[in-house]
């Protein structure tokens, strides 16, 4: 790609909120190898950027993300190495989102299918326009959505996940909210207002506390009950030693706004 080419992922930061926008609507914002690497690079930079408190993941066009680029896959159909590297790169990006020490909110307008649905499910929160639709339709083309299944099955119930995976059928935003794939469904006219109101609310918290909480949330999910309680008890005890915990408790008792140090 030439240096003058349009970036595949556009980044904009303001007031502690960094928006990453998939910007290849002519290819339905597909997760090509180039798109995945561009998104991965941006996530790496954000992970080291203390000025970013919340990330919003958005997309240009009427398709949020159509999943993998099937034209690219067809061109590389005889390359086992490329296929494996593609799915490994995609899996890396999804884990980067989960492991990012900043909350990530998906802003979904339009369609999110296959790995695009996986992308939504991998984000910590998701707000969808009432026109948004979701599917894991790989079964329809003989390619089961096995990697999207990982994120999907960790966000919705097993039977709802299996129904999406086995039928490949599109579901609307209201059903996506009902089964837990998205948090909120709003009129498209107020989508940005809703997303950035939520982002600003979260950005007003201690980023150190959010980092601790996000990491603990995903770790305890994979633990047996007693182990999860042992782990989170230690997390809370350690959290109390942080400057922001002391400041937050004092501010609450003194009935004033906390002055976060993010430490």
TrEMBL record:
GO biological process: fatty acid metabolic process
Keyword Metal-binding: no
Record key words, sorted: Fatty acid metabolism, Lipid metabolism, Transit peptide
GO molecular function terms listed in the Swiss-Prot or TrEMBL record: hydro-lyase activity
InterPro entries named in the record: ClpP/crotonase-like_dom_sf, Enoyl-CoA_hydra/iso, Enoyl-CoA_hydra_C, Mitochondrial_ECH-domain
Superkingdom assignment: Bacteria
Family to which the UniProt record says this protein belongs: Belongs to the enoyl-CoA hydratase/isomerase family.
Functional description taken from the UniProt entry: May play a role in fatty acid biosynthesis and insulin sensitivity.
NCBIfam families: PRK08139.1
UniProt protein name: Enoyl-CoA hydratase domain-containing protein 3, mitochondrial
């Amino acid at each position: 790609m030439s240096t003058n080419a349009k970036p595949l992922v556009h980044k904009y930061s303001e007031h502690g909120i960094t928006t990453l926008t998939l910007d290849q609507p002519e290819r339905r914002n597909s997760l090509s190898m180039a798109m995945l690497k561009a998104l991965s690079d941006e996530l790496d930079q954000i992970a080291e950027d203390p000025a970013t408190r919340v990330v919003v993941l958005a997309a240009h066009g009427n398709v949020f993300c159509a999943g993998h680029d099937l034209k690219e896959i067809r061109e590389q159909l005889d390359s086992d190495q490329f296929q494996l590297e593609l799915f490994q790169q995609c899996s890396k990006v999804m884990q980067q989102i989960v492991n990012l020490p900043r909350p990530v909110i998906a802003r979904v307008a339009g369609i999110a299918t296959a790995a695009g649905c996986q992308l939504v499910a991998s984000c910590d929160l998701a707000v969808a326009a009432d026109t948004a639709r979701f599917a894991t339709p790989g079964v329809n083309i003989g390619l089961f959505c096995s990697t999207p299944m990982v994120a999907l099955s960790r966000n919705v119930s097993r039977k709802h996940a299996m129904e999406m995976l086995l039928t490949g059928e599109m579901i609307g935003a209201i059903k996506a909210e009902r089964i837990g794939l998205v948090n909120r469904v709003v009129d498209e006219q107020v989508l940005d207002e809703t997303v950035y109101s939520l982002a600003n609310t979260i950005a007003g918290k201690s980023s150190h506390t959010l980092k601790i909480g996000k990491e603990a949330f995903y770790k305890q999910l994979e633990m047996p009950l007693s182990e999860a309680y042992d782990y989170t008890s230690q997390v809370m005890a350690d959290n109390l030693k942080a400057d922001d915990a002391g400041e937050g408790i004092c501010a609450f008792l003194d009935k004033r706004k906390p002055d976060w140090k993010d430490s």
